[in-house]
Amino acid sequence: MRILLVHQNFPGQFLHLAPALQARGHEVLALTDGANKRPSQVRTMRYAFTPPEADFARHGFAATYYQMTERGRAAARAAVTLRDTHGFVPDVVLGNSGWGETLFLKEVWPEARLLVYAEFFYNPRGQDVGFDPEFEPADPALSLIQRMRVVARQAHLVQALVPADGMVTPTRFQRDSFPAFVRDRIAVIHDGIDTDRVRPDPAARFTLPGGRVLAPGDEVVTFINRNLEPYRGFHVFLRALPAVLAARPEAQVVAIGGDGVSYGTRPPGGGSWKERLLAEVGERLDLSRVHFVGRVPYEQFLALMQIGRVHAYLSYPFVLSWSLLEAMAAGARIVGSNTPPVAEAIEHGRTGRLVDFFDVEGWSAALIEGLAEPGRFAPLGEAARAHVVAHYDLKSRCLPAMLRFVESGGRAGAAQIADE
């Protein structure tokens, strides 16, 4: 088969899928943004795209739609070149629909099976918008405008579903973010965790910036985000730390994450969320025991998961981070926010502990207890790993299911794939 994978930041969610398809004898080609410099294991073509200037003042509620359709047009131009110049006609196209790249590909290749990686559907209520009152507009008129923007943001996401011959998403929460009329057409297949690589390791070590080496058994709290920001509960976590450090004088806290913004907006007045939160609580923290290490190579991230005594993971009702499942696979004892995406992976009292997202005192108490009684909570880490091996393992479960989905051109039933 000829298979085209489309992702503006390729490989993205197709990191394991692309080489696996190629290894099975398929002709695999990736189509990605020309600015994407990530290495690729398969042949890659890049489309030229300069993001157009679009903002609410100039384009109103159509700003996002304008940007996404322009990206879709850039991807379609590259597709025409592939067809007319190189004679490339795929049997299957699989693309992430979040950025508009798949919108017009069916017009270029009507004979191809178009599969959509339906990552998330933004809704004006019940998910990230309206969840955290601290960052919501106090003015009802501004709140209405915010919700209207979210509805407008749905336009390209809905349009991408119309020509799709099959759809896939990694979690049930993400599937259920989509409109009810389409949910039963969406297969739930996670991208997969390599549990052979991500596993407990008593020999793991993590070196702090000052040179101290942490090892399994040390009293360590871990926290990991791509960027330290409210969508992933950084504000709640940092506010919980003064009580934790006061109660546990030997505890060390290690936070991995950048100072940028992956989701939401920057703090009012600029700067980073870390700067803003440290200005609020920094005087109550022993900063010699709180280590912000920025972004680190994957092997260091994995080592930290293997040595931590307690791992804190919070998330708005939003896309679940791979890092939570990787922490579980490494045997970490998880304290997670009791929000839908997290509760899908963590069963309270069996594979981890769940705390109300906004309960700062509850977070302090749970972290203190986890640090003080590691033996009591060790079975949670063991059960967490067993759960990931059973339900999210890359080689035995997720990758085979995704291969069946792609090779069938999406014809394999969504319910069948989800339940296997």
Question: Would you give an account of this structure?
Answer:
The chain has 420 residues and is of the alpha/beta class. The chain folds into two domains: 2-192 and 394-419, Glycogen Phosphorylase B (Rossmann fold, 3-Layer(aba) Sandwich), CATH 3.40.50; 206-391, Glycogen Phosphorylase B (Rossmann fold), CATH 3.40.50.2000. It has 16 helices and 15 strands. The strands form three sheets. Strands 3-2-1-4-5-6-7 form a seven-stranded parallel beta sheet. Helix 3 packs parallel to helix 5 and helix 11 packs across helix 14 (374-391). It starts with a strand and ends with a helix.
The fold-level CATH name of the largest domain is Rossmann fold
The overall number of domains is 2
Fourth-tier CATH superfamily name of the largest domain: Glycogen Phosphorylase B
Query: Strands of the largest sheet, in order across it?
Result: 3-2-1-4-5-6-7
Shape: globular
| Gyration radius, rounded | 22 Å
| Poorly predicted regions | none
Structure class: alpha/beta
Percent of residues in beta strands:
15-25%
**Structure annotation, total helices:** 16
Number of strands: 15
Main beta sheet: 7 strands, parallel
Mean pLDDT: 95
- Helicity level: 25-40%
Which class of the largest domain in CATH terms?
Answer: Alpha Beta
